[in-house]
Amino acid sequence: MTHAELWERHKAVMPDWLALYYEEPIEIVQGSGRRVTDGQGTTYLDFFAGILTNAIGYDIAEISDAVREQLATGIAHTSTVYMIRKQIELAEQIAELSGIPNAKVFFTNSGTEANEAALMLATQRRRSNQVLAMRNSYHGRGFGTVAITGNRGWSASSLSPVNVQYVQGAYRYRSPFRDLPDAEYIKVCVDDLRNVIETTTAGDVACLIAEPIQGVGGFSSGPDGLYAAFKDVLDEYGILFISDEVQTGWGRTGDHFWGIQAHDMVPDAMTFAKGLGNGFAIGGVVSTPELMDSLSANSLSTFGGNPISTSAAKATLDYLLDHDLQANAAKRGSQLVDGLRGISEEFLELGDVRGKGLMLAAEIVKPDDNSPDAATTAKLQQETKNRGLLVGKGGLYGNVLRMAPPMTLTEEEATEALEIIRDSFNTLR
User: Fold this and answer.
1) What pLDDT score does 156 carry?
2) pLDDT confidence band for 19 (50 / 70 / 90)
3) What is the pLDDT averaged over residues 371-380?
4) 293-322 residue pLDDT tens
5) How far apart are CA 256 and CA 262, in angstroms?
6) Biggest alpha carbon–alpha carbon distance for the chain
7) What gap in Å lies between CA 145 and CA 162, rounded to an integer?
8) Strands 400-403 and 392-394
9) How far is CA 378 from the centre of its chain?
10) Where are the domains of the chain?
11) Share of the chain above pLDDT 90, in %
């Protein structure tokens, strides 16, 4: 069956709003290392890793063996009404890595569920439905997480279970404050935060939730130290800080294990998902015990933290730590940033190169006025695919190429990717 035939079947039974990449969508049927092969036999270097989910890469023996060992017991599922050894072992490890004193962990199936759980905890703890979020943010596709998503392209409904207000600071490239030095930029954003609290809320806000680097928003971020300055203000009001680490966790940013650590602060809670399972469905919340234990009703997660996913996640986390992939993310990220900035000197269409570690973005603009250029972005994404490289796309205006390869990326593969990207830009001439 061709991709075109499969696409016709897909359109007949899947929602219209389920977006697919490329002029002719592809099916990925095989993978090894950092490369995947589609249903028609074409192999690609993967620079999006299932939206940052295949953090270690494909066909990793240590992870596959851990899953097979669990399957061999005959137990794929028991539910959280029973103890699950791998779940406990993984929770202990994450709690220790979190830096949150006496941390507790709750597992879910996805980042959306993790953020929904965090919202439930924070609003219950503070007995308030008021939430602060960042402009240009994305936190999931659930009812609560859509409500706190500050990106119109991903906000499907104005209905909301929470009262949300948005603050400035996370998308600097098109911010009205973009030309300010870091310290002044932080100051005006802090002033805005305080003004939002004082003028648009009742004061007793439950939490502020923020991505240290915005994912769907185009890998954008404010200066390091922004969220530490925010937390000083939040602490005055007793407002909790939740760091959405669904995309920034597990050392991907290179300099730090958690994205929020770049801001030299410890949040009240962090949410996580994606890369932890290297393709297996897992997410969760790690928080202070006071916040985690604030629910006054029974709860559980039928599939969250199941034996298969936690076995895969524990093996993934051990592999990541044993091979110091955080350091590799820093090295290969630096190589890619240097290469992309070199390309930006040749092509004015590459308006901004940003990100950290192996979480990088190229914002594509119209050279005459620096306005967003979604059409050229789509062309470049297609051109890289035609040359054997898969990259993501995002940003508020759909004009950002997102690059987040597996953290096992080699120097040679990074060089190969840069050559493909340069060749793709050459098609604009």
Assistant:
1) 86
2) confident
3) 98
4) 999 899 999 999 999 999 999 999 999 999
5) 7
6) 63
7) 10
8) antiparallel
9) 21
10) 3-60+325-428, 62-323
11) 97
Mean pLDDT of 262-272: 98
Which amino acid makes up residue 160?
S
Q: 3-60+325-428 sits in which CATH class?
A: alpha beta
> 65-99, pLDDT tens digit by residue?
999 999 999 999 999 999 999 999 999 999 999 99
Residue 258: its pLDDT value, please?
98
> Tokens 């040749």 label which residue?
346
Q: Is the four-CA dihedral 361, 366, 368, 370 of positive or negative sign?
A: negative
Amino acid 293: pLDDT: 97
End-to-end CA distance of the chain: 36
User: Distance between CA 214 and CA 217 in Å, rounded?
Assistant: 5
b/e map 63-98, b = 16+ CB within 10 Å: beebbeebeeeeeeeeebeeebebbeebbebbbebb
Q: Which CATH number fits domain 62-323: 3.40.50.1700, 3.40.50.170, 3.40.190.10, 3.40.640.10?
A: 3.40.640.10
- Cβ–Cβ under 8 Å, residues 230 and 193: yes
What's the mean per-residue pLDDT of the chain?
Answer: 97
Return the structure tokens found at 153: 């392209």
| Spatial CB neighbours of 377, under 8 Å, sequence gap ≥ 6 | 364, 393, 395, 398, 399, 400, 401
